[in-house]
Amino acid sequence: MKKFIATLMMMAMIAVMLPLTANAQKRNRRNYTTRTDTSQVYKRPNIYQRHRNLFNIGIGTGAGALLGGLIGGKKGALLGTAIGAGSSALYTYKINPKTKKYYRVYR
Question: I need a labelling partner for 49 at 20 to 30 A (CA). Which of 5, 65, 101, 102 fits?
């Protein structure tokens, strides 16, 4: 009986400690791209930074369609879609253009 209780206690301790040790050893390598000729590691931009233009235009188009639909029905939704897409494209490409920034992370 003592062996059985000791075994259960060991299994419980391993069950509690296993998730903690798994998180401690994870280095989140999918966010980093490496260069083979140097020892520098560059952080990969997140999904919003990579597709910022598409996100901004899509959100502006959706917001314009929603407001136009609430105000003017089907024709208002079409007009709001066009105005929202145009204004968000103007904002994205002319007023606040995208600049690529890569951060160096040293090992």
Answer: 65
Q: In what order do the strands lie in the sheet with 32-34?
A: 32-34, 40-43, 104-106
Report DSSP letters for 5-29, one per residue.
Answer: HHHHHHHHHHHHHHHHHHHHH---G
User: What are the mean pLDDT values of the chain's consecutive 10-residue runs (107 residues total)?
Assistant: 84 74 54 54 76 89 92 91 92 79 58
**Alpha helices, DSSP H only, in 1-107?**
2-25, 47-50, 52-90
Residues contacting residue 42 through CB under 8 Å, at least 6 positions apart: 32, 33, 34, 35, 102, 103, 104, 105
Torsion of CA 65, 69, 70, 75, to 10 degrees: 130
Please say whether the beta carbons of 83 and 59 come within 8 A.
Answer: no
pTM of the model: 0.52
Assess contact for 61 and 81: CB atoms under 8 A: yes
